[in-house]
Design brief:
This protein is 36% helix and 15% strand. The chain is of the alpha/beta class. The strands form three sheets. The chain has a six-stranded mixed β-sheet, with helices on both faces. It has a four-stranded parallel β-sheet with strand order 8-7-6-9, with helices on both faces. A three-stranded antiparallel β-sheet has the order 2-1-3.
Amino acid sequence: MSAVVAEKTTTLREGAFGNATNLACRECGHQVELGPFYACPECFGPLEVAYEFGAVTREQIEAGPANIWRYKALLPVPTDIETSPNTEPGFTRLLRATNLGAELGITNLWVKDDSTNPTNSFKDRVVACALSAARELGAKVFACPSTGNLANAVAAAGARAGIKTVVFIPSNLEQPKQVNSAVFTESLVAVNGNYDDVNKLASEIAGEEDGWAFVNVNVRPFYAEGSKTLGYEIAEQLGWRLPDQVVIPVASGSQLTKVHKSFQELVKLGLVEDKPYRIYGAQAAGCSPVSVAYKAGVDAIRPVKPDTIAKSLAIGNPADGIYVLDICRETGGAVEDVTDDEVRDGIVLLARTEGIFTETAGGTTVAVLKKLVETGQLDTSLETVVINTGHGLKTLDAVSGKVGPAATIEPSYAAFAATGLA
């Protein structure tokens, strides 16, 4: 499983990847057999999963389990995926955000809240698909480089599946995210460097060690498909229709590109009506290479050294950045960024309007939503969905100095009355 491209090394059982037929290069279209490959042998472009779906109906989906496997016909997983031990993520709540909408002046606003997944982030979705691929390919080790949430999800999924897990993180990662990984696995490796350094190390290990499935390296095409389930759920929970606008955080950019892919698949399959929609990307100013490129009107992404409290978005050289640019421009959306102070304000704003405690990535997305309204880039009259990707308990330090007791008083009514809170 170490090679980027190679001859077939594993005999796959029939239906191991469901309706998936092959891997195809996004750049040149060259096709590669299903396997642990992620770069095109012709042009070194990224590979993604291609399918022959056949007929898929709303009724078939609705009869499925209340997790991502209700969409198994649209994913690179076997038809018996439910029988394999996994964390069963997905089908998280879509909440009408009336209070936040009123605060921002948006008529019809929803929050897709992925903080209620098994390890409290959307990463459980992509990891579940990667785990299925690793199992079908006969992997002996389940691994990842991570900014935190992915490490949590991989460690938990590996424990559930009974497979050895090794996760690599930057050594300066938030302590709660380190603990949330170490509790599931004894093989947590902290690396002195940023995420891009950790990712480079993971790629080197994947090239040297046989039988290692790195979820976002050599099984990345399968892993990435899990993000499509966010788009499927949004459409289904809206009554089988696409939203007019959606705001999505951007780290590698994979989530945004796959939500777009999911919308296109739903249209192609006749599960939703075709309609225009706008996709917006959200970044923190301390790591905003895609936003910078968007505003400059260029196609190339210039890598940056991350410096932001939004560590789960701190990928200075985003693999799918150029595709994010294409999608946001083609759909009439935009890519915007906000400061760390605005990220903190976004966390508090969502919590105090909708009772949802988000981590710094969600704070970034809410703050960008606010900025898009203020700058006139988002139409406040259109139905809008903002995606919350993780729980705020993972990044407590971000707001610990911003919120706290309104008063410290003696235990008497007079002391309380003096606060003016009555």
